[in-house]
Amino acid sequence: MSAPGSAPMETLVAASAEEQAALGAELIARAIHEAILERGVARIALSGGSTPRLAYEHLGRQRLDWPRTEWFWVDERAGAKDSDRSNYAHAYAELGLADKPGARVHRMEADLPDLGDAAARYEATLRRSFGVAAAVAFDVLTLGIGDDGHTASLFPGLPTVAVEDRLVASVPAQPHKGLEARLTLTAPVIREARLAVVLCRGAAKRPVIELARSPGPLAEVPSRLISAVRGRVVWLLDEAAAGG
Ligand code: 6PG
């Protein structure tokens, strides 16, 4: 079980995928501006999946102080960095990071043969960026929810959701679900986020959103972790996912 986060949960319901993307980009852009004003830098960690892609395209068109932004990933699928399964490859293209000189991009190296090593390397990257003594508190995290209740790459039935002593963990392949091995940020990092934007679309997500928002064991529904985020949590849904 997870302790509830300190901030109230907010839900925004968009009339279309386009509106969801525009709202998501606006929310994220505002958080980036505020972080830069307050701390001189904005650190953002991006989830993969299909839902946030349009929002990343909108965000890429926002006027941001790009050289003061640092881009990280919430999770990554094992494989080549230019593969169609790569969360990095998708977000990099959708945000247009190749045309944003000065933006610092920290991909998870899920193309390394040893994912344990890759996780340790990413943890060191996080510590370098945030400072060894500081909390790894992302200014923005984007999250999605899988039909099985996962968020990030914290899956039901795997022990990764209970990892508390590392910032990044490797996740074994799940052939029965057709999933490759992965790297993921762990629960302590997700809980520290200053803003989590949860993007879900479609009626099929409705039951799992309800489960994610109800109390119960994290091991069964790891997306329950979202309720334990210390910062602001915005559920950005379309009408079908919201059940409206
Ligand atoms: C990934 C993710 C994952 C995703 C959910 C929702 O790499 O698969 O980061 O946690 O957010 O599976 O994915 P959809 O947006 O495709 O529903």
Number of strands: 10
Average pLDDT over all residues: 96
Total number of helices: 7
Ligand list:
6-phosphogluconic acid
Give the SSE string.
EHEHEEHEHEEEHEHEH
Write the layout of secondary structure elements.
Elements: E1 9-14, H1 17-39, E2 42-46, H2 53-60, E3 69-73, E4 75-77, H3 87-95, E5 104-105, H4 115-130, E6 140-143, E7 168-171, E8 182-185, H5 187-191, E9 195-200, H6 206-213, E10 232-238, H7 239-242
Parallel strand pairs: 1-10, 2-3, 2-6, 3-5, 6-9, 9-10
Antiparallel strand pairs: 4-8, 7-8
Helix pairs in contact: 1-2, 2-3
The protein binds 6-phosphogluconic acid.
Structure, explained:
The structure is a single chain. This protein has 244 residues and is α/β, with parallel strands linked by helices. Helix content is 30%, strand content 19%. The chain is built from 7 helices and 10 strands. The chain has helices spanning 17-39, 53-60, 87-95, 115-130, 187-191, 206-213, 239-242, and strands at 9-14, 42-46, 69-73, 75-77, 104-105, 140-143, 168-171, 182-185, 195-200, 232-238. A 7-stranded parallel beta sheet has the order 1-10-9-6-2-3-5. Helix 1 (17-39) packs across helix 2 (53-60) and helix 2 packs parallel to helix 3. The chain is globular. The mean pLDDT is 96. The chain binds 6-phosphogluconic acid (6PG).
